[in-house]
Design brief:
The protein is of the alpha/beta class. A 6-stranded parallel beta sheet has the order 3-2-1-4-5-6, sandwiched between helices. The chain is globular, with a radius of gyration of 15 Å. It starts with a strand and ends in a 13-residue tail after the last helix.
């Protein structure tokens, strides 16, 4: 990684644990994190994990309001290595796919794409409709990575925590974080 800065977005899709665990692991790996969480994301963090806004923001090096469209992460001149939206709602996916940039979360994703930096969207929805699939295709064609947090069972996980960790470690590996520890599959 070049700048050791990663933007982390968190939306209202179920799976707030992925964003929280990602922030924890990036901190442990010595990365500077820039968090922007939507209002629905904050609500979901509270419902799923019992954390409030302050507890979530304390996990990041710097946190921004989605309304702060003039924040540093809204500019391509602010050097970052990547952005991960974990979890990513279908609303945010659509906003990114269509370049709406109507809030800081979607603007930061747009900047990440235009600067040819790594953008990973941990999309959370099922079943998928045609609009979801087309939006995923559009983001992929723009250079983004669609990474639904699907569990792997090769390593025989014993808990939900192990499933979450495995998925987050795979994202860290995609980011080039040398400290990532994804489980390897040795075949059946």
């Amino acid at each position: 990684m070049r700048s050791n800065k990663v933007v982390v977005g968190l939306t209202g899709a179920s799976g707030a644990v992925y964003g929280v665990r990602l922030l924890e692991r990036l901190r442990a790996a010595g990365r500077e994190t820039h968090l922007v969480a939507s209002a629905a994301g904050i609500l979901n963090v509270h419902h799923e994990l019992g954390l409030d806004r302050h507890a979530l923001e304390a996990l990041a090096s710097k946190a921004y309001s989605p309304a702060d469209i003039g924040a540093a992460i809204a500019s391509g001149s602010f050097a970052t290595d990547a952005m991960v939206i974990a979890p990513c709602s279908m609303k945010t996916l659509a906003s990114v796919a269509h370049g709406l940039s109507d809030n800081l979360l979607s603007r930061a994703a747009d900047v990440t794409l235009k600067e040819r930096r790594r953008l990973i969207l941990m999309v959370r929805e099922t079943p998928l409709n045609l609009a979801h699939l087309r939006n995923m295709t559009a983001v992929t064609e723009m250079g983004g990575v669609i990474f639904p947090p699907l569990p792997a069972f090769y390593h025989r996980p014993q808990s939900v925590d192990e499933l979450v960790n495995e998925t987050v470690e795979r994202v860290l590996a995609l980011l080039g974080v040398e400290e990532a520890k994804p489980q390897s599959w040795n075949g059946l």
